[in-house]
Amino acid sequence: MQPMIFPTSYAQQGLLTFERLHPGTATYHVAFALWLHGPLDTAALTAAVSAVVERHESLRTTFTVLDGEAVQLVDAGAGPVVTEHDLSADPAAGTVEAVRRRLTAAVAEPFDLTRSAVRLDLYRRTAEEHVLAVTLHHAVADTWSCAVFVRDLSTAYTAARDGRSPELPEPPVQYVDYAVWQHDRLAGPEVAELETYWRETLAGAAPTLELTGDRDRPAVPSFAGATLPVALPPELVAAVTATSRRLRSTPFVVMLAAFQAVVARSTGRTDVLVTTSVATRTPEVEDLIGCFLNVLPIRVSVAGEPSFTELADRTRTAVLGAFEHQDLPFDRIVEQGPRPRDLRHQPLSQLMFGVQNAPMPQPELAGLTAEAGLVARGVAQFDLDIQLWAAGERIEGFCEYATDLFDSATVQRLWDRFVALLQDATTDGDRPLSQLAPLDPTDLRRALTAGGPTPAPAAPADSPAADGFPDLAGSPDAGDSADPAVAALSPAALRRWVGVLAEHAALRPDDRVLDLSDPDSPASAAWSWHVRAAGATSVVPPAGAGSVVLSAGAGSVEPSVERVADAAQWARLALAEQVTVLAGPAAELARLAALPETGPLPALRRLVVDGPLSEAVAGWFAARAPGLATVALLGGVEAGGPTLVLGPWRGSRIAARLLPGGRAAIVDPDGRLVAPGTPGELLLAAGPDAFAGRPGGPDDLVDHPYAGVDPATPSGTRLWRSGLAARQAVDDSIELLGTGRSDPTGTERVTPDRHIEPRDPVETVLAEIWGSVLQVGPVGVHDDFFALGGHSVAAMRIAALTGDTLAVELPVRTLFELPTVAAQAEFLVEAGRAAAVDVTAAAELALSVGRLSEEEVRAMLADGPSGA
Q1: Are the C-beta atoms of residues 504 and 458 closer than 8 Å to each other?
Q2: Do residues 337 and 271 make contact, with C-beta atoms less than 8 angstroms apart?
Q3: Phi and psi based region of residue 24 (left: phi greater than 0; alpha: psi -120 to 50; beta: remaining)
Q4: How far, in Å, CA of 191 to CA of 324, rounded?
Q5: Segment 774-783 mean pLDDT
Q6: What is the rounded distance in angstroms from the CA atom of residue 44 to the CA atom of residue 42?
Q7: Contact, 417 vs 675, CB < 8 A?
Q8: Strand order across the 129-137 sheet
Q9: Could you tell me whether strands 351-356 and 384-391 are parallel, antiparallel, or unpaired per DSSP bridges?
Q10: Model-level pTM greater than 0.90?
Q11: Which of 81, 359, 625, 836 is most buried, judging by how many CB atoms fall within 10 Å of its CB?
């Protein structure tokens, strides 16, 4: 018998689109196992499984695409069967841990949804120890469905063991009936009101809300994940319940508000958007297996220093509004939200928080004892997904997290901060959020030593590196010098700067040094003094001349020479004079790296950079100077001298350590120390006397948050506001966030914003397909798919119609990554060339057929392929 064809539900459409975008993953698999103890009647179990499959059409459902639309097909036959695996011959294979590993590996196997969305495996560990593993694709089941499956299986097994038919009532409806009802309902006038609500709710929201992870987000997510088991103790659960009653709310709202507060504190954002899942089951489908859920964004502002009570009230309002408008499917909600889209993460929010109310029931199979539990999947749908449920007087659950981004310790710290804030909030919720869950002693000790401890400076006054320093300044008191480069800093600060160069520049007497610093800056003065002390030679241009001179010997420094503004001239100078050490600001070195025709720099052995150097620029120099060593320092005259030495790249971040005598703090917008791992603004000072006699206001210098409180931080300690985003890493180094990885020229890709008509047959066909599916007017070749109202279902239709018309597949993922007609046309032509398909000819044929009248098409078909 042919399978019956039905439309897919909106939840199924979203899941099927995900499968097209990210094929071959187990991201949306729902898996559980029954651990069976006792003499199992295998025949009865097989019959019981067949009874459950027969009762629920969703377990006999597969999926395909017809006319560009995803559809579900219900097989009237037997459906999936149990596959048996005998492990009893190998005792090691039948251990609990070995079987758990086998189950996790089995869950990871992708489904071919055109063939099945259900897998049933029975593992025989010993004669009286078995495990039934059930793996379901989310398109046919949700977590609630697992409980329905277990309950129905228990009833059917007992009946089959007794030799009778199971007393399973016929469901009043099947899942396909729900899908048809949902489509009919969302074709009515109320959908406009739903869309208006979500469009207004999401107006102005940022496209992403990301916690700072331990690693950069990869270009292509693996969806690999892990789970951290968590629990709230009975006394805290009781406090949450009491607080929810006092606020006339629910425990879910109280816990969600606490989580949103932690997210705000962890991201530095006041506009917090977290998603939660909601069941869409009605009484008619309560006992049915299927995908009855929707995802809702909950957007709350923590601006204005609210108390927790105020935040919980805001959260309650947002939750009620979302639940009252939950009938709009998530993909349709996404359409009302911010653009652009990014396939590297979930749309709208990468964080989910939920409280489940569908616990797994205790299996009751006659003659057996059994336990049921979810199988570890090793995947993560979101960056972080916290799911909790009641377990007696406790609340238990898990944090599922993306291992692409986070280590377990980072997620544990986040959970600990959630628990701490929840405890304070349920004790005194009328206090401002900023006063709840301050840094615990361990975090405070670490935060006070961000970047490492503060050792004594490396270059004391009588060190060789600083020898002659007061004389070079022109006075024992450098602060009284008429030279602005000298007067900008205290004598101790300048002496420290020279000491830093002595340690990290490591000059040799035979070095030729080219310094690109502003000659009027303290950096230039410090270099001059250090070059003289090291007996090296400075390479400088003559004042006002284009030719090059080389200073003759140690100490022959010309601090007043004119600056060479032409980067090409600097490059010629470095090459002609065999420069071995090149120093200067990162921006000046980037100018050199932007030169297209600079050849090798064989003599160059060391770069000393003021500021973070992009990977592109560092690579440019490394390619031209084999064996080059690079030292990057941060903190110029504003910080009282170099304060940090920058280490290796960690994706888009740079690791940094404090230089001797330096101080650092990472603070929130209100100037409070943030917990380790939390991003904030970096404050710096090169030493305790870095700003002696220097005035400064809140936009420049600020008091250290723990000045006079921390024994190691004297009263009056001031820090410079760098304006840089940073966080304290696990190893207590400082990570600078969002630093440049752009190309050294600073050029950006410009997208045309004017309407351009299709310019060839392929673009014309694509524009017509877009216009038909999206129901929009003339489509320009640079119009953005999402800006025109594109969404996942439309993407699947466009991909299917394009493949049928041009005889070359347009993957849905490519449509998202190349969201313009021009880019897609270029992709299709190249794909056709690789597959020996003339895409342009196919487009011309489609256009010519489209221009024929109905009578002409009939006549052409009647003539046959020869045209005779």
Answers
A1: no
A2: no
A3: left
A4: 13
A5: 87
A6: 5
A7: yes
A8: 82-86, 118-126, 129-137, 29-37, 369-374
A9: parallel
A10: no
A11: 625
